[in-house]
Amino acid sequence: MKITLSVNDDAYPLDVEPRRVLADALRDDCGLTGTHLGCEQGVCGACTVLVDGEAVRSCLMLAVQCDGVPIRTVEGLAGPGGEPHPLQRAFSAERGLQCGFCTPGFLMLAAGALERDPALGEEEVAALVGSNLCRCTGYEPIRRAITRAARDHQKGQDGRHLSA
Amino acid sequence: MKPAAFDYLAPRTVAEALDALAAGAQVLAGGQSLLLEMHLQRVHPDLVADINRIPGLDALTVSDGTLTVGALVRHRAFASPGAVPGPLGDLFGRAVGYIAHPPIRTRGTMAGSLAWAHPASEWCALAVALDAVVELRSTRGTREVPAGEYFRGPFQTAREPDELLTAVRYPLLAPDTGVAFTEHRRTGFSFAQVAVGAALTTRDGVITEARIGLANCADRPLRAHAAERALVGAEVSSWAFAAAGETAAEQDAAPVPEPYADVDYRRQVIAVLVARTLREAVPV
């Protein structure tokens, strides 16, 4: 099927089989390998991306379902000059990653949550990080990083809107 | 694994979807269980009908004391306070947080949970406890099946392969109903080992109506009829709730052993959780 994926404001005209899941289309057809695929069963969350602004498992959506729908991946987080997104800075500052396999998924999970509710509280963050699996850093630094990004954003220490 | 090859249709009307189902299509709504099953190659349809582009199926409406949940209403809708009025909305709001995690709740649908019929499903247990009615449509017509007759076993329902689960209807709960929902599971990620939803009404300290739904306490969702009968007419007391828990565990439940929860353990958890849920459900 001919579809056009709109990823990070770039158009990718594709010819995909209906069985192609969004994660595979992003990685193999668009060449955007920042999105990782772990379990392919909706459990690990490594493949989390934003579809129409919402964090979803890209292994549990078909690419053909996303024809013309705005998609954001981890490649779209950094600013136009390549400066890291506030979440990426916070993950670095809080040592929120080790092997890094789960990181793109956590970043997009958090980006979706913060765009939905910039006043994300500590309890919500604690519940949120349970959505994805991390097998080396543990959840505490990731929780701290997301909380820090949310707090910095609310204080306005960051000149740029989270969705920039 | 990857899903096996299939043809894809995105019907724009219910009638088109029903034609596709008559031709053997599998329905794709939220996709959070269907795509999982297709990845595991437990389901391999030749044709998938994606109903997400059919207008109107995402409606959540209340009229004449009945809540109607369309096939595309996502789990997350029930997390919004006021989405469903009164104690019914309160009960749904308490249950929804136990369903998977936020990204799954964003896509997955209540109707999809009922169509999948996982024995541990929170929504399925509430559907039987609350006397929900499942609306099934096909090119042959429309029929309504009470939730109590709809679930036939693990992942087995009264739905015929060519039927679309278009809506689920629930009678609203009276404003003075107290509700609670509790769940026991190994980790935040796990399916429920046991989940219990309850709705209670009382008058002058005496229980006048009790509804208890049990998830993963048998090969299908259950309503704890024996425990409910024991409660109606009893005075509100921890003793009555503990006895109801024992009754639910021994008479209503038919636990299936699981790797981390054998039958004795599950009966123990059911008794404790039913009593706890009832205590929390006492109307204030």
From TrEMBL, chain A:
InterPro entries reported for this sequence? 2Fe-2S-bd, 2Fe-2S-bd_dom_sf, 2Fe-2S_ferredoxin-like_sf, 2Fe-2S_ferredoxin-type, 2Fe2S_fd_BS, Beta-grasp_dom_sf, Diverse_Oxidoreductases
Q: What is this protein called?
A: (2Fe-2S)-binding protein
Query: The organism sits in which domain of life?
Result: Bacteria
Keywords, comma-separated and alphabetical = 2Fe-2S, Iron, Iron-sulfur, Metal-binding, Oxidoreductase
What pathway does the UniProt record associate with this protein? Alkaloid degradation; nicotine degradation
This chain's source organism reads Herbidospora galbida
Ranges where the 2Fe-2S ferredoxin-type domain occurs: 1-77
Q: From the UniProt record, which GO molecular function terms apply?
A: 2 iron, 2 sulfur cluster binding; metal ion binding; oxidoreductase activity
The lineage, from the top, is: Bacteria, Bacillati, Actinomycetota, Actinomycetes, Streptosporangiales
TrEMBL record, chain B:
Family annotation (Pfam families):
CO_deh_flav_C (PF03450), FAD_binding_5 (PF00941)
Q: Does the keyword Flavoprotein apply?
A: yes
Asked whether the keyword Oxidoreductase is assigned, the reply is yes
Quote the Gene3D superfamilies the UniProt record gives: 3.30.465.10, CO dehydrogenase flavoprotein, C-terminal domain, Uridine Diphospho-n-acetylenolpyruvylglucosamine Reductase, domain 2
Q: Which keywords are on file for this protein?
A: FAD, Flavoprotein, Oxidoreductase
Against PROSITE patterns, the record matches this protein to: FAD_PCMH
Instruction: Indicate the segments forming the FAD-binding PCMH-type domain, all copies.
Output: 1-175
Q: Which GO terms describe its molecular function?
A: FAD binding; oxidoreductase activity
> What is the name listed in the Swiss-Prot or TrEMBL entry for this protein?
Molybdopterin dehydrogenase
Q: Whose protein is this, by species?
A: Herbidospora galbida
